[in-house]
UniProtKB/TrEMBL annotation:
<dbReference type="InterPro" id="IPR000257">
    <property type="entry name" value="Uroporphyrinogen_deCOase"/>
</dbReference>
<dbReference type="InterPro" id="IPR052024">
    <property type="entry name" value="Methanogen_methyltrans"/>
</dbReference>
<dbReference type="GO" id="GO:0004853">
    <property type="term" value="F:uroporphyrinogen decarboxylase activity"/>
</dbReference>
<dbReference type="GO" id="GO:0006779">
    <property type="term" value="P:porphyrin-containing compound biosynthetic process"/>
</dbReference>
<keyword id="KW-0456">Lyase</keyword>
<feature type="domain" description="Uroporphyrinogen decarboxylase (URO-D)">
    <location>
        <begin position="8"/>
        <end position="343"/>
    </location>
</feature>
<protein>
    <submittedName>
        <fullName>Uroporphyrinogen decarboxylase</fullName>
        <ecNumber>4.1.1.37</ecNumber>
    </submittedName>
</protein>
<dbReference type="Pfam" id="PF01208">
    <property type="entry name" value="URO-D"/>
</dbReference>
<dbReference type="InterPro" id="IPR038071">
    <property type="entry name" value="UROD/MetE-like_sf"/>
</dbReference>
Length: 364
């Protein structure tokens, strides 16, 4: 049986929010720069072509039917606008080549980026306008931004910034403060266009820093950014932190966010129990081991397991990959995630999911 959507993403979100019948749970495969493969262009075209960025997002939506679209190409756009050097492969995601400053004495010379003038920030803003106009009221559009702590690492270099935690905390605070100012200016420009910012904070991961360092160097600036966004247009932002985040879940939920996206190394069930009454949970099908390297059957099983773990989270649940998908993720696997969610339907019947799991595992 072929399952299709009978609602637009906007209609689905409204129905679920009001407790009404819907066709399925929200689902966001988080295809990221893999949209270039769908649209038929090289990733390098994204770097300076706002229309290509927007049209590739729409191409992915028309092919698979996910529930959100986001303007976001790589982690380094904001550091680059503040003086860092970025390497642009012909057909892969941009990477950091050189941080903005290399010695502590130069930190004071850093200035917040102007989102309307500096490097690729205006390109992204123009892409948002195209996407907003193409999507209309059918699907929610957002704009990704790296958090202040993560962007600070790219301004000074990851390894050198880690050393500052113990050797020169004052310098790291200066980096985070100037980084925050860029994040706020960009977030404001995003909201002025009519999109909502989403925040990625990979360097705040427990895999990178301990919870003590997170609370001292990341949390205060993250809070200020989130408060700024909420006060400017009433938006509760979605936040993603890579890796293991269990020890900081409650810190994050207390920020008043609209959703917490967790990586596949964390437990959806534990996250639901810890903070599900405070914020929506998103995740967390393994983007590499399952979505990229697995079979459609692997994708189906893991998607069902994630739904079973979190479908009843009090503030809501969105089926999602644990992080951005690798560029070459097979289309068949993305389609399988979407089709599995469609077959489950909404409201979710856990007995139906258990039967589907048994069948997928060859036990039915």
């Amino acid at each position: 049986m072929l399952y299709t959507d009978s609602m637009t993403p906007a209609e689905r979100a409204a129905a679920i929010a009001s407790g009404a019948q819907a066709d399925r749970l929200p689902c966001n495969p988080n295809i990221a720069n893999g949209v270039a493969r769908i649209y038929g262009c090289k990733i390098s075209e994204f770097n300076h072509n706002p229309k290509a960025i927007a049209q590739a997002q729409m191409a992915a939506y028309h092919k698979f039917g996910g529930d959100s679209l986001r303007i976001f190409t790589d982690l380094f756009t904001w550091a680059e606008a503040m003086g860092a050097t970025v390497d642009y492969p012909d057909d892969n995601t941009a990477d950091l080549k050189k941080p903005a400053v290399s010695c502590i004495e130069d930190i004071g010379a850093l200035r917040p980026a102007d989102p309307y003038k500096d490097k690729r920030l205006p390109v992204h803003l123009d892409a948002m306008k195209y996407l907003r106009d193409m999507a209309k009221d059918e699907i929610k559009c957002s704009a990704g931004i790296v958090g202040p702590f993560t962007n600070a690492f790219f301004l000074f270099g990851v390894d050198e910034s880690l050393k500052l935690i113990h050797k020169n905390p004052e310098a790291l605070h200066k980096l985070c403060r100037i980084s925050l100012e860029t994040c706020k200016e960009y977030a404001k420009a995003v909201m002025d266009i009519g999109l909502n910012p989403t925040i990625s904070e990979p360097m705040s991961s427990g895999t990178v820093v301990g919870e003590k360092a997170f609370r001292e160097f990341s949390l205060p600036y993250l809070k200020e950014l989130i408060d700024f966004i909420r006060e400017y247009n009433g938006t509760k932002v979605m936040l993603h932190i890579c890796g293991q985040t269990k020890k900081i879940w409650k810190d994050v939920a207390d920020l008043g966010i609209g959703g917490m996206s967790i990586d596949n190394v964390a437990s959806l069930k534990d996250c639901k129990i810890a903070i599900g009454d405070k914020t929506r949970i998103l995740g967390n099908v393994d983007p590499s081991g399952v979505m990229y390297l697995g079979t459609p059957q692997d994708v189906r099983i893991k998607t069902l397991e994630c739904i079973l773990d979190a479908y009843d989270s009090p503030k809501g649940y969105v089926v999602m990959s644990g992080c951005s998908l690798p560029v070459e993720t097979p289309f068949e696997n993305i389609q399988t995630m979407m089709d599995t969610v469609r077959e489950v339907g909404y409201p979710v019947d856990c007995d139906k999911i258990k039967y589907m799991l048994e069948a997928a595992a060859g036990k039915a």
